[in-house]
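Format notes (please read before filing issues)

Several people have asked whether sequences and structure tokens are stored in separate files. They are not. Every record keeps both together, in the order shown below: the sequence lines, then the token lines. Line labels are part of the format and must not be stripped during preprocessing.
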Amino acid sequence: MTRAAQKVGTEPVKLLEFADIENPIALIGCEELAPIIRQVLSGWEMRETTCAEPTTAKISIRKTKKGYIRSSPCVKKPQSFRHPVTAVCDFLVDLTNAYLADHPEMLCLHTAAVHLDDGLVLLPGTYRAGKSTLSVHCADAGFKLFSDDVLPVDGETRSGIA
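Then the structure lines:
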């Protein structure tokens, strides 16, 4: 067993710690999600670790025979996903909420953002309005995608945080 894994019952647990988030995230029996998470969040410092009590994790993803089950304070009942990429994409909502809970001074906009010249162009919209589709087309056209769906903004500097 590696330093970054421990056992809870018979399932290996990997704890992921993110810079600027108080509690780690527990991957239970699904260590294969860590590289996907690392790739998606390539600019965010993440380290794999262990702790004496995995209960410090408020967000967890557990692998079952039917797929991946995510539990967090943000959902009333655990969410289930068959594909690992879908599980990771949905987990990003929880990670964003955890970040914002730990940083109440941040303003959070429901928008995608692309970087143009020396600033950001925001692509706001409601749920399923096409923000992701438009941002993918912008990226395909050569613009740098800054964020998709949610943009935290520092209230003091008025800078977007990706």
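For reference, the curators noted about this record: The longest helix spans residues 84-102. Residues 51 and 107 are 32 Å apart (CA to CA).
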